[in-house]
Design a protein that fits this description.
600 residues, mainly beta, globular, 4% helix, 3 helices
Length: 600
């Protein structure tokens, strides 16, 4: 990705490549699984043929639990980071859990597929006098590939007063309390391409510096220093005022509907999963005035899944009335995991990854209330899947407004770790679904990458009515990245890149239209609204490609967009317009956004 340079406190920001397509050489081989600290030895997966599956149990070897008395914490953190720092497409998966208490002098550096979380009900129950750091030394100071890692439910007192969190997509910062500032750029102020904050409080100033875009939801900040292309806020105390496009801040006073992600915590010696309640017109954190509102489920109501468990075992657990806790690792599925019971929770730890084999769909949800999917990765298999994740069956029509289905930090990948194919990645058929932070990515680098090698026509297709997206990242699909057919849809923040690898103009031609829009609202839709949406092109295979527009929608009063932008990265391809036939063309190789403040 190109970044538009801006003044920064660095006297000489390091110039970096135009595109994140440039990658390091082969990632280091994945080492042997690291031993757990504070966790009992792993139990064998329960065979699916048994009549009843055992619930609860220990969390396995790749969930590593610390308490303040644990010896060698820093050494263990360093060991995991050394293994995961540059292992972008490897098999290692780790969840780091910190029991309530105070920890001194730690620097938890996070590499790929590493999640760090506190085990209290409030972030302030678990305090690290130190840092949780993401930097980009492994990629020469370029943070545009710092994917698939997370920090949740901790209080930090940074050593130098400011914590560094230089991330790109799929790296949520949730339910965090930073007693100081937060720097979102890498050391040296190289490029960065994030990102997402929710339900967090940063007492000091957030400094994005080189961050191209960012979405912050239902949080509190002491200040916000700058913007590059697209900074979006909803329900954020201390957010800068609405001013798009100069500076490019899109600010909504509240988030229309939100329900925070489920999380694991300790009640005494017992693990439980907390389920935050739904909020309407939300603003600020859920935990600022004490214990959050919601309900809890004991671990005895979960099947604790292990890598090696297949679809038959996971479905047997669901049919038994259990929820699923997916411990870190890779799960190969020869059939869909089918969630049929209202209120079911499927929660992943440490980027547990579902891989559908033989063209299967990885996961299907019935047309039922209150299902919560959170915290896992879906990786397309080598045989084409018609869909990877399906929320509600085709024709779903039930009203879920009182208790919506939520999809949070569920990330989808086609290619990169090897050739993968899927016609459509994520399909939303159920009404009132909330998709809160997703990155749906057809890989532009890694293994198994090519215009037809990792073919994936559609990223997200929305057929259900009243669907809300908060933090939508969708990139590089062969046709429409987002196709929205349902009524009364809403999106707050969208980030997109068109596919880099289109071989020529004919390959992307959409009938008489030059290219498929990044975000297409069907002609039949009469009500839709979006805020803070951006699309970028980098047609480096054929820089002469022209994209007619980034956004396409019916020109009707009920379909409204606020604060749109398109960017040509370094002049590799161009947009003729922003939305439909509105908005100026991109400006050659200047890498300056073309914007539309309001449409129609």
């Amino acid at each position: 990705m190109t970044r538009f340079p801006l003044p920064s406190p660095s006297p000489s920001p390091r110039p970096l490549p135009l595109s994140r397509r440039r990658v390091l050489g082969a990632a280091a081989a994945v080492g042997a699984a690291l031993p757990a600290l504070g966790v009992a030895p792993a139990q064998a997966a329960v065979p699916a043929r048994r009549k009843r599956l055992a619930a609860g149990g220990d969390l396995g070897p790749n969930v590593i639990v610390f308490d303040p008395a644990t010896p060698g914490i820093q050494a263990k953190l360093d060991e995991i980071f050394k293994q995961q720092e540059s292992d972008q497409f490897g098999a290692g998966r780790y969840q780091l859990l910190f029991k309530p208490g105070t920890y001194n002098g730690l620097n938890a550096q996070l590499g790929f597929y590493t999640s760090i979380s506190g085990l209290g009900l409030s972030p302030d129950d678990t305090t690290i006098n130190g840092d949780v750091t993401v930097d980009a030394g492994w990629f020469n100071g370029n943070a545009t590939q710092n994917f698939w890692r997370s920090a949740e439910n901790l209080a930090l007192v940074p050593v130098n007063g400011t914590n560094r969190w230089a991330v790109a997509q799929a790296a949520p910062f949730r339910r965090m309390h930073v007693r100081g500032g937060l720097n979102l750029s890498p050391d040296g102020y190289g490029w960065a391409s994030g990102g997402y904050i929710a339900d967090s409080r940063i007492d000091g100033t957030v400094g994005p510096y080189s961050q191209q875009q960012w979405y912050t939801r239902d949080s509190s900040v002491g200040g916000w220093q700058n913007a590059v292309w697209n900074m979006v806020f909803s329900g954020v105390e201390g957010a800068p005022a609405q001013s798009f496009p100069n500076p490019p801040y899109t600010t909504l006073d509240t988030t229309p509907v939100s329900r925070e992600k489920p999380f694991l915590y300790l009640d005494g010696a017992d693990y439980k999963v907390f389920l935050p309640e739904k909020r309407t017109n939300a603003r600020g954190t859920t935990w600022g005035s004490g214990t959050p509102r919601g309900t809890s489920l004991p671990l005895s109501q979960f099947y604790v899944a292990r890598p090696g468990d297949g679809a038959s075992t996971l479905n047997a657990a669901l049919e038994q009335g259990l929820n699923l806790l997916l411990t870190p690792g890779i799960y190969h599925l020869d059939a869909p995991v089918e969630v049929k019971r209202a209120g079911t929770v499927v929660l992943g730890l440490g980027y547990a990854t579902l891989v559908p084999d033989g063209g299967a769909t990885a996961l299907k949800v019935a047309d039922v209330d209150g299902v919560r999917l959170a915290g896992f990765l879906v990786d397309a298999g080598t045989v084409n899947s018609s869909t990877l994740v399906e929320i509600g069956p085709q024709g779903a029509s039930a009203d879920h407004s009182a208790d919506p289905i939520t999809v949070q930090d569920v990330f989808v990948r086609i290619g990169g770790a090897g050739a993968g194919k899927a016609t459509t990645s994520l399909v939303i058929n159920a009404r009132h679904t909330i998709v809160d932070h997703t990155w749906v990515w057809r890989a532009d680098h890694g293994e198994g990458v090519g215009w037809d090698t990792n073919r994936a026509d559609y990223g997200v297709v929305v057929n259900g009515d009243d669907v809300l997206m908060t933090g939508l990242f969708v990139e590089h699909f062969n046709k429409y990245d987002v196709q929205w057919n349902g009524e009364r849809g809403r999106t707050i923040f969208f980030q997109n890149e068109k596919a880099y690898d289109a071989p020529n103009q004919a390959a992307i031609q959409n009938g008489d239209m030059k290219g498929f829009a990044a975000y297409k609202v069907a002609d039949s839709v009469t009500s839709h609204e979006g805020w803070g949406l951006g699309s970028y092109c980098f047609y480096n295979v054929d820089p002469t490609i022209v994209q007619h527009h980034g956004f396409a929608a019916p020109n009707t009063p009920g379909v409204k967009f606020h604060d749109l932008l398109v960017v040509s990265l370094g002049g590799k391809g161009q947009y003729e317009h922003v939305i439909n036939d509105a908005g100026a063309a991109t400006s050659g190789s200047d890498t300056v956004p073309s914007t539309v403040v309001s449409y129609p």
